[in-house]
Design brief:
Strand content: under 5%
Number of strands: 0
Order of helices and strands: HHHHHHHHHHHHH
Radius of gyration: 18 Å
Number of helices: 13
Amino acid sequence: MSQVFLLLPDFLLIVLGWLLCRHTLLDRSVWDGVEKLVYHLLFPVLLFVAILRQPLQPGALMTLAGCGLTVVAVGIALSYALGRWPGVDPRTHASGAQTAFRFNSYVALALAERLGGVQSVAWIALLIALCVPVCNVAAVWPLARHAGHNFLRELARNPLIVGTVTGLVGNLLGLRLPELAEITLSRIGGAALPLGLMAVGAGLRMGALKEAPGLAAALLGIRHLVLPVVAIALVLFIGLPPAQQTVVVAFAALPTASSAYVLAVRMGGHGSYVAGLISVSTVIGMAGLPMALSALDALR
């Protein structure tokens, strides 16, 4: 499949969610429940199973992991710095900053197998295992500080952190699930990708971005321009194997996490503004990710 059509199946699921929410009886009230189901159960189970069943080999994958963490760290640093801009509303920034460095793991896992089969799934699983906790800590911190929530309690209650950390610990301890449990959990997790992508479409909203368009442009510029450029420069400078270069650049160019909306709403942030950022990021990512991979191909 050519670069241009890599994300087409996932994009069609997002479009389907948008159509179902606006033109059928499956309206917003239905998708609110779907979002909660995916965020609190299906997606954590998917992460747990994906991480647990893939051998991580920490030593051999240290460079790959370092590249992924570096990309995330750049996004966190730049998004936090935007809070110092004159005139930036603290609540809006605390809510939206996460969209500059978080990534849509639904799309990442759906894309991984098409990029390089089972091996790419293992590499993406490693990046998810390492970067989701980091991203969630960085996302929760400004929201917790702004809303006066207990930071450590919010981390301990975050289902994505629980799922990834549990899977990572189990993998490193050599845990293997009984066949019945593995099949059951795999089927639960397998529902996360299509439902998660359709829920992204159902939540597409643009209007609230008018409240702070400059901040929105800066956050999306970090997510879809700065981070892919950093990733391309990094993997070429270090000299990662070509297949790992592709995975890191695709990881850096992903649309932002759809669960950012749920987190912002649950912690008293500006949910509609975050929904707008997710909507635009999803649309940009459909074109930007293939462009980033094409740029990598042209430079190596």
